[in-house]
Amino acid sequence: MKKFVALIAMVAFLGLAVVAFGTLVGPTGDIKVEMPDGAKKPAVTFSHAKHAVPVPDCKTCHHSFKGEGQPQKCSECHKAKKDGKKPGIKNAAHKTCRGCHRAMKKAGKKTGPTPCKGCHKK
Ligand code: HEC
Ligand code: HEC
Ligand code: HEC
Ligand code: HEC
């Protein structure tokens, strides 16, 4: 019985460790960037794993993330239209995503796409 309790405790502990690491590395597969209401272009899908590995700083993209729990979706704050200081989803995403790809390309490094169709796939 003692062994059984210890096993349960261990499983529970490992479970927690996995959750903790899962939160740190972010989603491991492809992820669709959610569109706010009123968007027309096909939503962009990209490999979160490829991004979170060479860019371990979550704040590069999740700039409002405090490091606890889950970062919020961009569309929770960035809507179809700009709102005061908050750019609309198009400018927010393009500045972050395309901005980095462009800068890396200029520096001659291997990076992600810069033409529209490279990200907005039908
Ligand atoms: C590096 C990737 C990337 C490239 C290149 C890119 N976009 Fe986007 N774009 C995004 C992301 C991410 C969003 C946020 C919306 C989403 O997919 O959830 C977005 C949003 C938009 C939106 C706002 C959503 C809508 O449908 O109203 C428009 C319009 C748009 N892009 C047009 C373009 C055009 C035109 C080009 C080429 C000149 C382009 N994009 C190139 C990643 C990209
Ligand atoms: C290159 C940009 C980028 C980097 C770096 C990045 N993320 Fe993300 N992440 C995104 C985007 C974009 C989404 C989709 C959010 C949306 O739909 O608005 C996302 C989604 C997520 C989600 C799912 C959120 C949900 O509601 O489904 C989690 C969790 C997450 N990221 C955690 C992390 C963690 C932890 C790190 C740092 C290790 C990280 N991310 C680094 C861009 C990035
Ligand atoms: C909790 C709300 C919130 C979330 C979630 C959020 N943003 Fe923002 N974002 C803001 C606000 C507010 C601003 C206005 C400037 C500031 O206060 O930083 C902003 C500004 C920006 C800017 C302009 C910064 C500049 O220097 O011009 C970019 C680019 C941006 N966000 C991209 C993103 C992307 C990409 C995501 C998702 C990965 C995201 N944001 C998620 C609230 C948010
Ligand atoms: C800090 C720089 C940086 C930022 C920010 C960034 N990328 Fe990338 N992106 C890269 C690099 C580097 C690669 C090449 C990774 C590889 O192939 O291993 C890449 C590859 C890609 C690819 C092709 C591989 C794949 O993931 O399917 C897509 C699509 C892409 N990025 C979309 C995006 C989107 C959408 C965003 C914004 C949410 C974004 N990127 C933000 C650097 C960046």
CATH class membership:
Alpha Beta
* Beta strands, count: 2
CATH architecture assignment: Alpha-Beta Complex
Q: Between the first and last Cα atoms, what is the distance in angstroms?
A: 57 Å
Structural class: mainly alpha
| Whole-number tally of structural domains | 1
Strand content: under 5%
Which topology does CATH recognise?
A: Cytochrome C3
Mass-distribution shape: globular
**Poorly predicted runs:** 1-23
Spatial order of strands in the largest sheet: 1-2
Quick overview of this protein structure:
With 122 residues, the chain is mainly alpha-helical. Helices cover 45% and strands 5% of the residues. The protein has a single domain (29-119), classed as Cytochrome C3.
How would you portray this structure in words?
Helix content is about 45%, strand content about 5%. By secondary structure, the chain is mostly helical. It has one domain: Alpha-Beta Complex (Cytochrome C3). The protein has a two-stranded antiparallel ribbon with strand order 1-2. The longest helix is centred in the N-terminal third of the chain and has 24 residues, at about 1-25. The termini are far apart. The relative contact order is 0.11. The structure holds heme C (HEC) (4 copies). One heme C binds near residues 61, 74, 77, 78 and 85. One heme C binds next to strand 2, helix 2 and helix 4.
Task: Walk me through the topology.
Layout (H helix, E strand, L loop, with lengths): L1 H24 L4 E3 L12 E3 H5 L21 H4 L11 H18 L9 H4 L3
Bound molecules: heme C (4 copies).
